[in-house]
Each structure stands twice: as C-alpha cells, then as structure tokens.
Amino acid sequence: MGGGGGRGPSKADLSRLEELARKTLREGAEPSKFNVFISFAAEDLNDVNLLRGQAKNENSDIEFNDWSLREPFDSKKADYIKSGITDRIEHSSLTLVYVSEHTADSKWVDWEIRESVRMGKGVIAVHKGEYPPQKFPKALTDLKIPIIRWSQEGIAAAIEKASEKR
User: For residue 126, is it left (φ>0), alpha (ψ between -120 and 50) or beta?
Assistant: First the structure.
C-alpha cells in the first residue's frame, strides 16, 4: 500500500539534518589530512616524487593529500594553464613550494606562490640539503615566506602551522 502524495521535509528540516550529518562526520572522523598543492620546477620532479612518497608512508610525520599537478599542462596557452593551476590551488589547504637551484627560473612557481597568497592559502617553502639555494622565487622574499630545511618533522610542523593561518 504505501503512502505517497504527502509533502516531503521542509527546507529548514533538510538544513538541520544536513548540519547534524556534518557535525556527526566531523566528530567521528579521524584527524584529516591537509590538501596540499606542491609548487616546483619541472626539473625537480624526482625530489617532489620522494616527498609525495613520504606523505604516503604510514611511518612518516608528513601527511597530506597531494593536489598538485602530476604532469605539466600540455599547452602553450597561459590562460588555460593558469585556470587549471588556480583550480588546484583553490581546492588545497595550503601550498608547499619545493625550492632548488631550478625554482627561481620557473615561469610558474613565482606566480603560484602569489596566487596562493591572493587566495588566502598558507604557503611554506622547503629546500633539500644543508643550505637553501642562493637564488629562489622573488615572491618568497617579497611575501616574507621563510624557507625551511627538508625534514619530516619540520615539514609536518610547517604544514600544521600554515593551515592555522587560514
């Protein structure tokens, strides 16, 4: 026999149910990973892949979901590239800039840093090795973003701190 024909829940009822569901999910969820956009020069893909691997390792202090590009956009059209990168940054919690001797020469890294800040995203910069490179994107200096040394504990702490600024 079945009913039907009656009115469904009101918009207010649906809103209350949606908020209750969100609250229940937030309270019952495990600590979530941060969504991180990684900005880097194409020449540094191997080092960035190592960082990505550390983030997937359950024994690592570094824990995030990688929202960066796996491969460069296959296009000569700057507007198309910017649109795709902007979308990735927008869906990220923060931007991690991998700084090397190649980074200052990248036509995209400086723009990605500035775009991240414009969107209100936290930005951290990481270098590998004993000392940071002599040359790096001007946006790091202009925006007073410190460059930290690559260590699992340091990166994990910087991600946590940068995400609090939002």
Answer: beta
